[in-house]
Amino acid sequence: MRDNVIIITGPTAVGKSEIAVEIAKKIDGEIISADSMQIYKGLNIGSGKITQSEMAGVKHYLLDFLQINQSYSVAEFCEDCKIAIKKIIDNKKIPIIVGGTGLYIKALVNDYNYHSVQKNEKLRTDLENYAQIYGNEKLYEKLKELSPTVAEKISINDKKRIIRAIEVLSGNKVDKERISDEFNYKLFALTTDRNKLYERINLRVDKMISNGLFDEFLDLCRAGLNKDCQCSKGIGYNEFFNFVNGEWTYRKTIEKIKQHSRNYAKRQLTLLRAINPIWVEAFPRENAINQILKEVKNGQD
Known about the structure:
Elements: E1 4-9, H1 16-27, E2 29-33, H2 52-55, E3 60-61, H3 74-90, E4 94-98, H4 102-110, H5 121-134, H6 136-146, H7 148-152, H8 159-171, E5 184-191, H9 194-210, H10 213-222, H11 238-244, H12 250-274, E6 278-281, H13 285-300
Parallel strand pairs: 1-4, 1-5, 2-3, 2-4, 5-6
């Protein structure tokens, strides 16, 4: 019999962590973060990282374990997440995966085999040189020729992921996606009215600014953050490069953070629809918690 693993996802600012902690307290669970920015030390305010007091004594995994100059792949997340799941199960607790990085969750649930294509250093060097000469747009065109579907999921500015995607697709050895048979994933996606969500996003950004997001950005830059770092692509950090370079005013920068956050929420919802979760209205909180607990219990009967 496969062990149950609860996944709670949803768009930014919908309140995933808050609900997950309450559920963990009720079912003796431990939480694994599925957030591509919260893995980095120092990216606290802009990533919406849960604080120690908000954890309420619930143990969390995959937070704060990378330096800002380090890279991290979807494949590495899947491997690390499964290690954490097994550790939690060995501790007689229930694993609860929480986060909004849809690619992490989709890869985990569908059990993608990213490791089936070995690194091709020559191809990587050739593609790096190509991008240096012709620019990211031409490199991105190469990816679109191989797979328009994959290209849609990757930013034209994310050179590292474009190169890895071309490498994987050129290798032509990636397993077709399949539902994982290692664990019994119960996948829940929190949602709410679009206008309400956008209002929460805007208020969340305002709170981040008042809590010192720009000062956090400057501290990170002093510690070595630059535009080549993988984590610098995170919303709430990337935009401030335009401000310090004099391209945007402070006010425009804040508006761009809000706009990009709303756009990101739309992309998150689109990706989630493709993996067919159980949709849960996020408000009122008590109703959302009770619905998830009921579904989990029904799955165990």
